[in-house]
Predict the structure.
Amino acid sequence: MTTSVQLNRIQQRFDSWDVNGDGQIDRADWDAEAKRILQAFGEAPVSPAGRSLTDAYLGMWAFFADKAGIDEHNGALTPEQFNHIAEEHVLENGGAGFSRVVKPVIRAMVELVDVDGDGQVNPGEFKTWLDAIGVTNVTPADAFRQIDANGDGQLSVDELVQAVRAYHLGEIDVPLLGH
Ligand SMILES: [Ca+2]
Ligand SMILES: [Ca+2]
Ligand SMILES: [Ca+2]
């Protein structure tokens, strides 16, 4: 059963991923979204981290295109198709497939903020993340606590992957991939 909060978040997700605003999502939108994020982090698209993030975003697109049965290079998703896939593969059925394609995105984003290089995100690094994607609806400390499932004061890649799904399920209020 999908709640109105969940539907709302899927709708917002569609709108933010439809970067050129033509009412459909296609590969160019995902490429543009990756570039937008890299710009927010002050990272060049051609750097290793920039390429990782772009590849990871295009991997997420390939997942949606595959589930819709469209060509990832020429096809486009309507809002209806997108909602359907998001409900079936992100919200329901445990979200394992989606988590698998979100993980490289999260890993690439961790790389962008991980100044101490320990592979995890500390509170200071997390604030950089929220600032870059423009999250203002939650305080960094509250958001951090919501995501730090094991309470060790660090956000691991797995905790962050879980948090992306938890946001779309309406369980937490931190849009880690932007609104
Ligand atoms: Ca579009
Ligand atoms: Ca770190
Ligand atoms: Ca933790």
User: Anything to note?
Assistant: The longest strand covers residues 25-26. The domain at 4-168 is CATH 1.10.238.10 (Recoverin; domain 1). The radius of gyration is 15 Å.
